[in-house]
Design a protein that fits this description.
Blueprint: E1 2-8, H1 17-31, E2 34-38, E3 41-45, E4 54-63, H2 68-82, E5 96-102, E6 116-120, E7 123-126, H3 137-146, H4 159-166, E8 174-178
Antiparallel strand pairs: 1-4, 1-5, 2-4, 3-4, 3-8, 6-7
Helix pairs in contact: 3-4
């Protein structure tokens, strides 16, 4: 199973953050990903320096014929079609898609800086599972919804246990669960 985390904090070509997440589902299913489970949408508090933005987050579980690096490139193309990113690290964006887990594999973990680390010569190297997923309520709530029994391949802990540990955390906390058309 592959699990993706989706987030949006500003409107873009696909509409509001919630509409962007819904459109992302169609983009994924139409090109690079076979969806087996889709979480509800969650309104969440922003994380990072100066982050007052409210985000909409979701998770999707499924499979892809693409290898991890190729899948990441395909996801970044979808992100670009959904609109641009802020120049500020962790800034507002129309769409952010992270590979949270890829078929139980461990690649480049733990990473030092976010989802990617420098591999040399300006290239970036993928880190799976996402190195921050176990510390982020906005990732864990939708992850636990789509794959409650998924176990972190490094920590050995289930998604539900990780979520229960982080549910009251202030940074990235869940503000409310939104109704989803899915």
């Amino acid at each position: 199973m592959i699990i993706l985390g989706l987030g949006s904090s500003r409107s873009g070509p696909w509409g509001s953050p919630a509409e962007t997440i819904e459109q992302c589902r169609q983009e994924l299913a139409g090109h690079v990903f076979t969806i087996s489970a889709w979480s509800s949408l969650y309104e969440t508090a922003g994380v990072g320096p100066g982050r007052s933005s409210v985000f909409v987050n979701a998770a999707v579980a499924g499979d892809s014929h693409l290898a991890p690096d190729a899948l990441l490139r395909a996801l970044k193309r979808i992100e670009r079609r959904a609109g641009g990113r802020s120049a500020m690290p962790w800034g507002p964006r129309s769409l952010d898609i992270d590979i949270l887990a890829y078929k139980g594999r461990v690649i480049g973990w733990p990473a030092r800086q976010g989802n990617m680390t420098r591999a040399g010569h300006g290239e970036r190297r993928l880190s799976i599972p996402h190195p921050q997923l176990h510390l982020r309520p906005f990732v864990l709530a939708p992850l636990a919804e789509v794959a409650p029994n998924w176990r972190h391949p490094v920590l050995g802990t289930s998604a539900c246990t990780l979520w229960n540990r982080m549910a009251e955390h202030n940074r990235g906390r869940i503000l409310r669960k939104l109704d989803s058309a899915c």
